Write the structure tokens for this entry.
Amino acid sequence: MSVNKDVFERRRDLNYDFQSVGEPPATWRAAAHMPETFVPTHCAFCGVQCGMFLRVREGKVVGVEPRDYPHNRGNLCPKGVTAYQQVDHPDRLRWPMMRKHGKSSPLERVSWDEALGHVARRWQELQAAHGKDAIAVYSGSSMTNEKCYLMGKFARVGLGTRHVDYNGRLCMSSAAGGYDKAFASTAPHCP
């Protein structure tokens, strides 16, 4: 992975941004002659959603480059720099897996219907035995506002539980503590 910032000139046609209106003068077809195609996207590791390019060669993601975007200004954190490595990692789960014969049995590939059916049955059993609040939902800040809203609705209306949280409580608690000690406020002080 190399981060060569001179390829990201401010007026470069390839630096297409989802916030702009219309297609840039150099369309994606015209850019396809490059050995690698830069696909504009956002990092999904946290809620900041830094702008980045996925470097794609012969249909495979081979790297990542920062994008000059308001949040990250052409820089990526260590998580963003390695974000592409999970795409084709050999240990990545690509289908549902279950232990069909107890906790000590090996994981086996199952269909989505079987996996989701098992989860639904198990949740129903737990709620019947221990009440609706026996199930908690833990959401994530890297989802869109709409997805976060739906997750909360799913928890409260679909499952009937009052226990809903998201990773910001744990992820940002140390940062908020540091901000409070340094600046007497828990709000982030950087743009």
Observations:
- The CA atoms of residues 14 and 26 lie 7 Å apart.
- Confidence is low (pLDDT under 50) at residues 1-20.
